[in-house]
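Example 887, ligand flavin-adenine dinucleotide.
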Amino acid sequence: MKLTLHVWRQKGPDDSGRHERYEAEDVTPDMSFLEMLDLVNNRLTETGGEPIAFEHDCREGICGSCGMMINGVPHGPKSMTSACQLHMRSFKDGDEIWIEPWKALAFPVLKDLVVDRSSFDRIIQAGGYISVRTGSAPDGNAIPVPKEDADAAFDAATCIGCAACVAACPNASAMLFTSAKVAHLAHMPQGQTERYDRVLSMVAQHDAEGFGNCTNHGACQEACPKGISIDYIAQLNRDLIKATLLDRPE
Amino acid sequence: MQLNSGVPAGPIADKWDNHRFEMKLVNPANKRKYDVIIVGTGLAGASAAATMGELGYNVKVFTYHDSPRRAHSIAAQGGINAAKNYQNDGDSVFRLFYDTVKGGDFRSREANVYRLAQISLNIIDQAVAQGVPFAREYGGLLANRSFGGAQVSRTFYARGQTGQQLLLGAYQALERQIAAGTVEIATRHEMMDVVVVDGVARGIVTRNMVTGQLESYTGDAVVLATGGYSNVFFLSTNAKHCNVTATWRAHRRGAGFANPCFTQIHPTCIPPSGEYQSKLTLMSESLRNDGRIWVPEDKEEKRAPRDIPEGERDYYLERLYPSFGNLTPRDIASRRAKEMVDAGHGVGERENGVYLDFKDAIERLGRDTISERYGNLFEMYEKITGENPYDRPMRIYPAPHYTMGGLWVDYDLMTTVPGLFAIGEANFSDHGANRLGASALMQGLADGYFVIPMTIGNYLARVSHQPVPTDHSAVKDAEKDVRDRLDRLMSVNGNRTVDDFHIELGRLIWNECGMERSKEGLERALRQIPELRERFWNEVRVPGSAADLNQSLEKAGRVADFLEFGEVMCYDALTRVESCGAHYRVEHTTEEGEAKRDDERYAHVAVWEFTGVGEAPNRHVEALEFDNVQLSQRSYK
Ligand SMILES: Cc1cc2nc3c(=O)[nH]c(=O)nc-3n(C[C@H](O)[C@H](O)[C@H](O)COP(=O)(O)OP(=O)(O)OC[C@H]3O[C@@H](n4cnc5c(N)ncnc54)[C@H](O)[C@@H]3O)c2cc1C
Ligand code: FES
């Protein structure tokens, strides 16, 4: 296959950036999207150019490093699939592909397709954990967890932190990400003690980072490569209301 | 090079307790005064940083990722072992210890492995308390599965994403300490060298990967939790950025490298589909619980797998190993698969795989149960191959996966450089010549949550350090070395890409120091690697600038280190004139084609000392003593 790429190139945070056009030749359907970019980068290097910077690591859809807008859609056309797991069989000979970084106030571009997502870590720092010191835990089977709860917690916990939800959202909200962690911990008996403080602090940090509000658009759910559901946002909102009521001074 | 393992005296079951009692403790009020540098935020590094932060040490942690959550540990699929015996099927600390020593083909240190088995119990408790959503039975208690090399069900799991869930647990604990101010983190910082002052590790040189600046940090101890080196093969199941740089740089500064040739080839990976292949994907070993491995008997077989009648299939593992069947340890399952493919029984378009078939399991347990157990793996397989494993057997083939070798450490996990520690996959400690499934997560977390936070205190309490300023000559010298090397990489200006060299090195190591090794092949590799390194330094092209985010430069530095490291791997394989575990010397096999150990001459750890690039390294040994398990020929028949 032969493809035409229009790739966002930006030298650094202060550069204004622009699209560059590249021809990708000898692409085969079994290649992953990132392997196609490897091919383009190798040609660029051999011909004296500078390769396109993009993030990746596991290349199996679990580390959350990769992430780019492919034809205006986070991670590209295939649902429930991260860019590294997208294969070129989803495209056809002669296609034009536009490749851009996540765009959100809270994610400054560092170079080309690489953005700074450290705001996600700071949301976790605000309360995305259970406070348990190493060594202080009771026996693993001391507290039975109903299988449905464990499964529900797991489903929320599968978020890979790639930030496609933010990139998809017209408000650049990170509510899907935040709610997935809130829901994961709220489904476990171990997470109850800090449940309401957690939601308050995480939401406050979310707002402080410059993410927008959720207006129930649902684009995040569509874009999520792990199928995280917006039901968690509803759940977060319920906990938030309760927390706000609890939090009222006596 | 002094190799004092420091194994405490006493009966094996009491060693760790005795040792903890005898350790010097750091007064809680003084912990804050100690600066501990940790490199790596995978399971080992994140758990260590969080725990040492909780204890009150002043911790600085570094990672080349943009977030601790991206570490390679995130990709572990199948599970984590613990001798809980919740299934009441005869498990015990001693059995886990015994299985691990035997599975490692009697090339690990008994005392360390016993401690690991003891601590396995605490890890599960810790993870559950953190909210890790392990699989549960209907009664709400923890579920288990069995894994290769074991006949009891002791593996805890979170669907096929156990590493992800455990790492998120450790990551969250770490973020909590960052928020509390006990731990400071520097993401997108790559460690380039260790600073050694008067023979003692006192700091590191890092490269800020966004600005290209070299930044040095000093402290009272340095802990490397930087993972394994399977990517020396270029194609492996490891994340693309995994590399040997941190441990190799430490080795160049005096840390002994133990058993570098002990590399694990995992039997169940998706076979390569073309020349552009950039990495290989693992299909968790847990699949071997329910999947049956077979190849067509007829080499010319062209029919679709479902059309091949039972009588014309060879379930070769079940045939050769009736008692373990599809659950034989990894090294054996891998070798047998290679043997079948080499003999012409390979399946798939490129005839480079064997079948892993779920038909019987689906009939027996129902599709829902199978999907519950392996759903995400089946999806992943389908995404990559375009084939649906519910209807058509998977195609699998062995791939480099894990490295048992690593920096030599004593019982306290300290390397041969005082003050420099290594934990997780970066050290050599617990798996001997072959690691059993679900034991790496266990080891990484044992080291990080429970061992290093204790043993580092024992070190710190005994030393009295003057602070090392970052303009100290040792720091400046290390920085200069790093800068010179980066400048050299930038200035070659050849016409070949870094990947090109990496692929060539990987192919060479895979052919000569992969699943099978021979004297002749290893000697060939030892002639070719220096030539390849020479060409690299004359022909590589690293575009862009060093004062910038430059992924080509990052890669080039790592590949340059692999080009040095590959040699010691081959020396190690050449001088271990026996077969054991994953190290299979074709000259040393039993009549049935199994690895044949030579306990008289090789019941030891080989530890390499750096003598210069291109110079033959020095080989030292730590003799292994087996007082609690009987050395025996491994038999899985
Ligand atoms: C696909 C796959 C599946 C697996 N499944 C299982 C399983 O089911 N059960 C099991 O027990 N084991 C499994 N393993 C093995 C296990 O995942 C690893 O051995 C383990 O996670 C390693 O953890 P670690 O903390 O030692 O290193 P890693 O997770 O590799 O972390 C290394 C860290 O070091 C950092 N780092 C490295 N070098 C530098 C440097 N120079 N400067 C700065 N930072 C650096 C990295 O950024 C990273 O944070 C699997 C492995 C693979 C490949
Ligand atoms: S590279 Fe890890 S999720 Fe895509």
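Summary: Chain A touches chain B through 79 residues (CB under 8 Å).
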